[in-house]
Amino acid sequence: MNNNDIAQIVINWYKKENFAMPWRTNSNPYKIWISEIMLQQTQVNTVIPFYIKWLKRFPTINLLANAKIDDVLKCWEGLGYYSRAHNLHNTAKEIVNKHNANLPNNYSDLIKLKGIGDYTASAILSIAFKMPHPVFDGNIRRVFSRLFILKEDSKIIIKAKKEMLKYMQSCDPSDINQAMMDFGRLICSPKKPQCNICVLNKLCKAHIANDVLSYPQSKKKQAKPTYDVVVGFIIKDNKILISKRKKNKQLGGLWELPGGKKKKKERLLDCLRREVLEELDIQIDQSKKIGKIKHQYSHFNINLTGFQCHYQKGIPKPLSSDEIKWIKFNEIKDFAFPASTLKLFTLYEAYNRHHT
Predict the structure, then answer these.
(1) Which residues are known to be catalytic?
(2) In this structure, which of 54, 75, 77, 191 has its CB flanked by the most CB atoms within 10 Å?
(3) Predicted TM-score (pTM) of this structure
């Protein structure tokens, strides 16, 4: 199997397909960095509108570094994995202060920045600076596992990086990295690879052996736990009460409705009253069920039930949050909320239309 043949075949396929993506119109290091962070654990089609919106709001690294974290989180709202937004904001500040507002063009400095690991550093160096740094993701893992019939991750990583470095001796590092990633994503896909139109099928050892789906070795997925969570639209003077999650918690810095996880054998309303008392030191009454949604996180799922209820007595205090606010419902657009809360807002609007 000729290494240059593989590289040139895939690059020819890549250039012929001409995948138009907004981050591929230039090699600006800042824009490449933003796109690579957004693309982590997120599908390309999902990222595109967020990427465009982000660059309109924060077109330069200086504007991002000087922004308020609330504005950063609001711009990120709906994209998930919010630690990425926090890392972007903190790292932008560090780049401005320590690197004169320019992303480093060397691996050792890039890898020290929060939120930038081997993959992201290699992507930035190869795409923005045209340096020979192979990237390694799940798509590339799959391609090389099937090409060379390798199952063990350690062997796949070594082989893939070795081969990619060889390809980069005669090919543009940016082209080969992006071509291989797209090829794995669109042709050499996990469950339904398009071997019939694959430009490498005559060179692919797994295809020749008619055993493509055995590679790479599948990782056993652990069952995710599901939790019942209840929250309240607490109403006082036509306003609802929201609280800001602590910075060091999951979804830190986002706003949410008061409530929490239901205990075993606890009724939903009893849970809501308990959580509101523990979190805010207030009491509620006249509760009416708004509806329930299901939401998936990376390591667990939730069944989230919302109730409309009325403030009864007590002085609200942020006992388990960084801040609380009374807001009008039409002001929710000014605050960043988790996706699960946004789903409940939709139910709440429907509920109010039906009951008014």
Answers:
(1) 36
(2) 54
(3) 0.92
DSSP letters spanning 39-65: TTTS-HHHHHHHHHHHHHH--SHHHHH
For residue 274, the surrounding DSSP H or E stretch is helix 268-280
Tell me the pLDDT tens digit for each residue of 169-222.
Answer: 989 999 999 999 999 999 999 999 999 999 999 999 999 999 999 999 887 778
| φ/ψ of residue 170, rounded to 5 | -125, -5
Do the Cβ atoms of 146 and 207 come closer than 8 Å?
Answer: yes
Checking DSSP bridges between strand 301-313 and strand 283-296, what pairing results, if any? antiparallel
| Cα separation, 219 vs 39, whole angstroms | 22
Cα dihedral value 169, 15, 151, 165, nearest 10: 10
Q: Is the dihedral of CA 268, 274, 280, 283 positive or negative?
A: positive
SS3 303: strand
Note the residue count of the chain: 356
